[in-house]
Amino acid sequence: MLPKPNRVVHAADFRRIVRKGRRISSPIAVLHVTEAEAAVSRFGFVVSKKVGNAVVRNRVRRRMSEHVRQHLLPIDPPVDVVVRALPGAGIADCGTLTAAFEPLLRSR
């Protein structure tokens, strides 16, 4: 689980990041990246019902969150990121998800 200061939790923050953020996409996820309002980088995850049932959606969310947590480095300048999972994320195994997710985080 991500540390609390590194999470986007408010709906208004999600809307701001998605509307104003730069979009980076892959077949598995779309990242919306914008400058942070806080002093640290924050991440939020959106997984729609198109990805699968509740079990699948929560699994995808946990895998993406864990990958971000493991690779969370001091990002300078801090950014706010919303990760939106696409339907392909529901059938991807952990290795495929990580392989597709890594270049997205680097290209921010």
Describe the protein's topology:
Layout lengths: L10 H10 L1 E4 L3 E7 L6 E6 L6 H17 L8 E7 L2 H4 L2 H13 L2
Parallel strand pairs: 3-4
Antiparallel strand pairs: 1-2, 2-4
Outline the structure in words.
The chain is an alpha+beta fold. It has 4 helices and 4 strands, in the order αβββαβαα. Strand 1 and strand 2 form a beta hairpin. Helix 2 (54-70) packs across helix 4.
Short structural summary:
By secondary structure, this protein is α+β, with helices and mostly antiparallel strands.
Could you name the key traits of this structure?
four-stranded mixed beta sheet, globular
Given the structure, what is the number of helices?
A: 4
**Helix content range of the residues, please?**
40-55%
Give the SSE string.
HEEEHEHH
Low-confidence stretches: none
Terminus-to-terminus distance: 22 Å
- Shape field: globular
Question: What fraction of residues sit in β-strands?
Answer: 15-25%
Mean pLDDT: 86
Secondary structure class reads alpha+beta
Number of strands: 4
Our Rg estimate from Cα atoms comes to: 13 Å
| Sequence of strands across the biggest β-sheet | 1-2-4-3
Main beta sheet, described?
A: 4 strands, mixed
